[in-house]
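Notebook B, p. 112. Complex prediction, attempt 2.
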Amino acid sequence: MPSSEADVKQGKSSRIFEVNIQVAVRIRPLLPKELLRHHCECVKVIPGSAQVTVNPDRLFTFDHAFGPSASQDEVYRACIQPMVRSLLDGYNATVFCYGETGSGKTYTISGGGQDDEGGIIEHVARDVFGYLDEKLKSNEIDVATVHMSYLELYMEEVRDLLDLPTNQKGLNVRDDINGNTADFSLSALKLKDELNKCKVIHNWINQNSFLRNKTIGHGEY
Ligand SMILES: Nc1ncnc2c1ncn2[C@@H]1O[C@H](COP(=O)(O)OP(=O)(O)OP(=O)(O)O)[C@@H](O)[C@H]1O
């Protein structure tokens, strides 16, 4: 979609081009302990734009810029939801959070506790099953199979966050005979562990009521 001159002035210039990669910045609010120590914000979003100022003489432009009051829902709808729609049309999509420790990556991806509206993962799960429901109801598709894995790469070690009893153990990334990276979630875990994982997914679905009565794999929950 071509951008107007006003968009360009407001820092939305990257939207002139149709790009497959978008970069968003999110500024988290100061934490109570930071307020107690009289820390102050050094990064600010220019209202109505996708630009931020740092200290305050340096200006940076992104595809999206969210200030401390942005909700999880706002971030999801602007940055992630369009990707989920393309995902169900058969395209690949990747979302990753990058930032120094304490900058809000876990909060954005996984959510921030009981009172929070949920992070990207919860929103994606909700929408994936919602869209699949629509497609099933309109007979666009007969059956839907959803596979899911939840891995963490930390300090060069891969952990399977759905395999809770053994998630301290590092998984190995393996190459097949042609040098392709194998599906390590299948090759590194024994069948017993796979079954264990199914139980964990089952418990997780039961704890997340919005997922109940949805078809996961070939099982009905
Ligand atoms: N947008 C936000 N609104 C309110 N609190 C937030 C927000 N983002 C982060 N926080 C809070 O800031 C703290 C640090 O965030 P978080 O743990 O997500 O950082 P992180 O980048 O994942 O850190 P690490 O790399 O050390 O794991 C947490 O207490 C979190 O609840």
